[in-house]
């Protein structure tokens, strides 16, 4: 029996080596042999042994983990949509479940991730009935604060949270949420990457709790709201920190995504908690605007800026936040105009290819530009705050016009004018006319445009003037 086991394992190793070969013939042979060995009851155990053995080449171990996940999908449960006979015997499943989790602490992140995918696939069928100790094991890894084990365990939880059922979630959250809070707050022990995973897991859980609340009205009160204050307190601390190893832009983006998830899923219930957080987000919004160009490329923070816009848009779309956002409108529009400034790179493209200026400005499919997203947010504000938009836009435009007088010596002063004209041109024509007539003044604007923009060297100023006209 032992000789047969060793023989099968060696044959499996040889098949995996063949699949990684440069030779098409050798790869094909390896795949054919693998399909034969896959029919044996010990197949999953042998794959696990190969994954665990650090004497094997990394590529072999990683391939074995990928094959194991595929094997679980097709042979682990007869209820799977992908099921192919034979079904893995229970004794073999038990051995795999006992051996595999320890590999979550492997020194290679590739192995940790691949094993996490395989474990989450097994858990899909076996937890909690056949694998009740899984989360005890995962929590043990997390509590250990050993970086590799924490990373591996968090990867499993991230995968599982996306596929959690209504029955599994109530068992998991009381164990998991306190640990997620602890990890996020412990910036000395855990990297930004690991701490960011806590927000991804939380988002998945919030989405599922929201779905559950249709039938189980008390689910949010029991499973989510008791933990919200501590999560938000930790998030605020992170957002207030300058960009660095403990709170980089990616982590801040993940935090803002979670705030969006909270706001959109439970707008009424979250309102009492979000007041102080909104002020923190606003502070972050202003800090970023002062340190980057309108593409967000200079400091690689475009994704964060876009999600900040999305967060503000979510606030404006819920009446319960009206009193808060109404106080922000003037300043928000003023700063949105700054986010609309043309970057040097974009200006170079438009000068080289003038036709692109018109195409890019009217193309609704362009969603990656911070400039375009700023215009979209302005449109949302204008649609939902019609009574406020007239005065707010006029104040912002006049303020920018006045401020630019002090920087006329700069070769880039015209960018501010171009953004202001873009704002006026992007609004509904009736709104723009009322802004000009009631607040800015027809004569003032006309004379200002003629004197500063039409006669300037700013090509795009002239384009926006024509558009506004």
Describe the SSE topology.
Layout: H1 2-19, H2 24-37, H3 43-52, H4 58-75, H5 90-99, H6 109-126, H7 134-144, H8 147-161, H9 169-185, H10 192-212, H11 219-223, H12 228-240, H13 249-265, H14 267-289, H15 302-316, H16 322-326, H17 329-339, H18 344-352, H19 354-362, H20 370-384, H21 386-404, H22 414-426, H23 429-440, H24 442-454, H25 459-468
What does this protein structure show overall?
- 73% of the residues lie in helices and 0% in strands.
- The C terminus is likely disordered.
- The chain has 25 helices and no strands.
- The longest helix has 23 residues.
The overall strand count is 0
Beta fraction: under 5%
**N/C terminus separation:** 88 Å
Query: What is the CA-atom radius of gyration, in angstroms?
Result: 29 Å
Give the SSE order as H and E letters.
Answer: HHHHHHHHHHHHHHHHHHHHHHHHH
Count of alpha/pi helices: 25
The profile of the biggest β sheet is: none
The share of residues in helices is over 70%
Q: Which descriptor suits the 3D outline?
A: elongated
User: Low-confidence parts lasting 5 or more residues at pLDDT below 50?
Assistant: 293-297, 465-469
Question: Which descriptors would you attach to this protein?
Answer:
about 475 residues; about 75% helix; mainly alpha; disordered C terminus
Brief rundown of the structure:
This protein has 25 helices and no strands.
